[in-house]
Design a protein that fits this description.
The complex is a heterodimer of chains A (319) and B (498).
Chain A lengths: L2 H8 L4 H4 L3 H6 L6 H12 L5 H13 L1 E4 L7 H12 L13 E4 L4 H7 L6 E6 L9 H13 L4 E5 L2 H5 L3 H15 L3 E5 L8 H14 L3 E3 L11 H18 L4 E3 L7 H14 L12 E3 L2 H14 L12
Parallel strand pairs in A: 1-2, 1-8, 2-3, 3-4, 4-5, 5-6, 6-7
Helix pairs in contact in A: 4-12, 5-13, 5-14, 8-10, 10-11, 11-12, 12-13
Chain B lengths: L2 H9 L28 E2 L1 E3 L2 E3 L6 E6 L4 E7 L3 H19 L4 H17 L1 H12 L3 H23 L2 H4 L5 E3 L2 E5 L5 H14 L3 E5 L6 H12 L7 E3 L4 H8 L6 E5 L2 H11 L5 E5 L5 E4 L5 H13 L11 E5 L3 H14 L18 H16 L3 E4 L14 E4 L6 H4 L6 E7 L2 H9 L6 E5 L3 H10 L4 E4 L18 E2 L12 E3 L1
Parallel strand pairs in B: 1-5, 7-8, 7-10, 8-9, 10-11, 12-13, 12-17, 13-16, 15-16, 17-18
Antiparallel strand pairs in B: 2-3, 4-5, 6-20, 11-19, 14-15
Classes of the chains: A alpha/beta (319), B alpha/beta (498).
Chain lengths: 319, 498
């Protein structure tokens, strides 16, 4: 567990004190207009970032990456290689920061923990019957406990979309609260799987329920369905985070994940963050990018800014 | 600590780039070197640029820097007469005689040339008018081209626009346009006139003549027959001479209500046709069941788009009392993020005020709002030292009787009023001499329909604001004018039906 996260979770925030009710969450609920939301996201994506502002943004983006591998074929060798990339993304450029966390399946946690020992890179693990979440609450809780016991600093859980879409918000809420408790000191990221929630109204409602139930972060997607993170979905979630912060004083983090594969798009997410939640959220403690191929594209852009020329993909390690 | 651990730590790249600080976007300036603005522009009459009879020229500035851009001719009554004669000649000898499909061909050509030169025109528009490049690039110029394309489509199908009627042109149109959307207003005026078979004398605004003169160059390039469109520059006297010229058959004016009334008086008793598109004080109505965050964006876009120099700007926010607190809080936060500054920077949201005179008018009305006891919120953004600037502003605690709730400010200044019931919202919304546009924000469809029926406004936007399309008619009720521009309705004033 990194120093910064420990400080963050103990100062002024205890889950029990903040855990509230579904009814309170729904008090902040209101409609989201899809056309206007998409328009706003598109206009922010048109910001033109050059020179220092671009390099600064790209390096910050690297430091916010949850470098991820979530495959059935993951092995110790694969995740250790990924950890090495996480520690030093570009060996030729010492000014490129390390990533925020390495995100894996629970069975890989021990290997990652060992490989990252001595660094302040966090170990994140997906849990709770990822990606569908279609298993029993008791098993989700058990899986969370065991994963944390293995050394995970962060748990990425999925909500029960079946319960949510059938209107059983209480079940969704209670399950998040139970998993949060099982997390102990570990941070909880709650994946809404926005691609399955049909519209932005539901995204906002699910965001509010997750935050009121104890989420430290809310996250868009598993990366396992057709539609993953998008700029408008992320904007709708930022707005929910902003309203929750206004009412409770608590800052919730945000993690768009899936489909963020190039540097330009990563910068667009940062612009959206900066102009919605403001500079206070511009830290890996409160914003993450869930991605795998993004890192190399950013490295390529950074090297282009440094040397003035694009290098071929062969000059960036594939891990 | 084990050896591997130490090794790992040594390999570790640095921590995150310093966070929680302001992210200074480096300037991202649109290039201007490809834009050739002449040092002097003459009058465009009979297909040629000719010196004014007055032998006088006046300066036109870049309002963001107060630098001189060019000097343009000051047309006197004699020049107006020359232009009207050229238009009459072209009308009688060429334009009314050629086939409708031939007219369409020319209009299509103009539309395509505007598209081809869109970057060039956008930069010139921003330099002469002060509007952010992202607006001239994404709104003004594409819409101007779209208007020409749209009316080119109608030019050879007039019998379908007016089924079972004989359609004939009116004659010579005298058109006077404002400075807030210089090229776009020229397109709104010229395109339907040409499609209907008329010829034109157009006078752009005194402060923003450059893109209209560039449009004249496009007419030359398109080989539009000489005299079909004539462009004369000058101040109010030139406009007055144009609209009162005896050989003008149709007058179209967009601008202030005060000047509109003067024109209407001058034309009384003549056979001239008249359309007026004048001022506004549009209500933007936010109900408690609105999508609040998007409503805030709509309010921002409604009043700060083009520095509020928009006749249909949503300058009166009517917000239901139950959501007044979150809406004003969100507005305060949002105006702090508006980027005010160099209009040529692609990241600029709010540009320069168009002229010193306009800036002084805004300052006067804002001072009046403060005197009347309304609470003022202003963005704390830094304003450039040179040029004409006004920080985005809104007032709360404004009552219907305040001057800032009654008069058109035509600047980035919003008045916030509250209401309790839909009936009260309607009453306040309609309680104005104007009636150009209105906005309604609610997630309830039936309420949108009911409000749209009862609002006395030419355009009602639901859950959006400031959306324009050539297919959609635009125009006012009451002192906001009469006649419609855009859509098939926009052809009406330019044809004689029998």
């Amino acid at each position: 567990m990194s120093e910064s996260l420990i400080t963050h979770s103990t100062s002024g925030f205890s889950p029990a004190r903040f855990r509230r009710t579904v009814a309170e969450a729904l008090e902040l609920d209101h409609g989201v207009d899809a056309v206007a939301l998409e328009e706003r996201a598109a206009s922010l994506a048109k910001r033109s970032l050059k020179k220092d502002a671009k390099v600064w943004g790209l390096k910050l983006a690297v430091s916010m990456i949850d470098l991820t591998t979530l495959e059935g074929k993951d092995t110790r060798g694969k995740v250790v290689a990924l950890c090495n990339k996480a520690i030093r993304p570009d060996p030729s450029d010492p000014s490129v920061p390390h990533v925020a966390a390495v995100c894996v399946y629970p069975t890989m946690v021990a290997f990652v923990k060992q490989a990252l020992r001595g660094t302040n890179i966090n170990v994140a693990a997906v849990a709770t019957g990822f990606p569908s979440g279609q298993t029993f609450t008791s098993i989700k809780v058990q899986e969370t406990r065991e994963t944390v016991a293995l050394g995970a600093d962060e748990i990425d859980m999925v909500i029960d979309r079946g319960a949510f879409l059938s209107g059983d918000y209480q079940k969704v809420f209670d399950e998040i609260a139970e998993v949060k408790e099982a997390c102990g000191p570990a941070h909880l990221k709650v994946i809404l799987e926005t691609g399955e929630l049909a519209n932005y109204d539901q995204v906002r409602r699910a965001s509010l329920i997750a935050m009121y139930a104890g989420a430290d972060f809310i996250k868009t997607s598993t990366g396992k369905v057709t539609t993953n993170a998008t700029l408008p979905v992320t904007l709708a979630m930022f707005e929910a985070i902003r309203d929750f912060h206004h009412v409770t004083g608590k800052k919730i983090g945000m993690k768009p994940a899936g489909g963020i594969s190039n540097a330009k798009l990563a910068l667009a997410y940062l612009v959206l963050l900066y102009e919605t939640l403001g500079p206070e959220w511009m830290t890996p403690d409160l914003f993450r990018l869930g991605a795998s191929s993004l890192l190399n594209d950013i490295l390529m852009q950074l090297r282009k800014e440094r040397t003035g020329a694009y290098q071929s993909g062969d000059y960036f390690t594939l891990d | 600590m084990t050896t591997t651990e130490i090794e790992t730590r040594e390999r570790l790249a640095p921590g995150p780039a310093s966070s929680s600080v302001l992210w200074e976007y480096a300037p991202s300036l649109e290039a201007t070197d490809h834009v050739k603005i002449a040092s002097r522009y003459n009058l465009f009459i009979g297909g040629k640029f000719v010196e004014p009879h007055s032998k006088k020229w006046f300066e036109t500035l870049n309002p963001a820097t107060e630098d001189r851009l060019a000097e343009v001719a000051d047309a006197d009554a004699h020049d107006v007469d020359r232009a009207v004669k050229a238009a009459r000649n072209a009308y009688e000898k060429v334009w009314r005689k050629i086939s409708r499909s031939e007219r369409a061909k020319y209009i299509f050509r103009i539309a395509r040339l505007i598209q081809e030169k869109s970057r060039y025109l956008a930069v010139a528009e921003t330099m002469n008018g002060g509007k952010p490049i992202k607006e001239s690039r994404d709104v003004d110029i594409p819409l101007a081209a779209a208007h020409f394309f749209y009316y080119a489509g109608w030019a050879d199908k007039l019998e379908y626009a007016f089924p079972n009627r004989n359609v004939a042109p009116v004659g010579v149109a005298g058109q006077v346009i404002p400075w807030n959307f210089p090229l776009l207003m020229a397109a709104w005026k010229i395109a339907p006139a040409l499609a209907g078979g008329n010829t034109v004398v157009l006078k752009p605004a005194e402060t923003t003549p450059i893109t209209a003169l560039m449009l004249a160059e496009i007419f030359q390039e398109a080989e539009l027959p000489p005299g079909v469109v004539n462009i004369i520059t000058g101040a109010g006297a030139t406009g007055a001479a144009l609209v009162s010229h005896a050989d003008v058959d149709k007058v179209a004016f967009t601008g202030s209500t005060e000047v509109g009334k003067r024109i209407q008086r001058a034309l009384a008793g003549t056979k001239k046709r008249l359309t007026l598109e004048l001022g506004g004080k549009a209500p933007n109505i936010v109900f408690e069941d609105a999508p609040l965050d998007q409503a805030v964006e709509g309010i921002i876009n409604g009043i700060y788009f083009n520095q509020g120099h928009v006749c249909c700007a949503g300058s009166r926010l009517l917000v239901q009392e139950s959501v007044a607190e979150p809406i004003t809080r969100k507005l305060r936060e949002r105006i702090a993020t508006l980027r005010v500054g160099n209009p040529l920077d692609k990241n600029t949201d709010v540009g320069a005020i168009n002229s010193r005179a306009q800036l002084e008018k805004i300052q006067e009305l804002v001072a009046c709002g403060v005197d009347e006891g309304a609470e003022i919120f202003q963005s704390s953004c830094a304003l450039p030292a040179r040029g004409y600037w006004f920080a985005p502003t809104f007032f709360t605690g404004v009552s219907q009787s305040s001057r800032i709730a009654q008069e058109e400010i035509f600047g980035p200044v919003l008045s916030v009023l509250t209401f309790r019931t839909p009936e009260e919202a309607l009453e306040k919304a309609n309680n104005t001499p104007y009636g150009l546009s209105a906005g309604v924000w609610t997630e309830k469809g039936s309420r949108i329909l009911k409000m749209a029926q009862k609002l006395r406004a030419g355009v009602v936007w639901a859950n959006t604001y400031n959306k324009f399309d050539p297919t959609s008619p635009f125009g006012g009720f009451k002192e906001s004018g009469f006649g419609r521009e855009g859509g098939v309705h926009g052809l009406g004033p330019y044809v004689v039906l029998s």
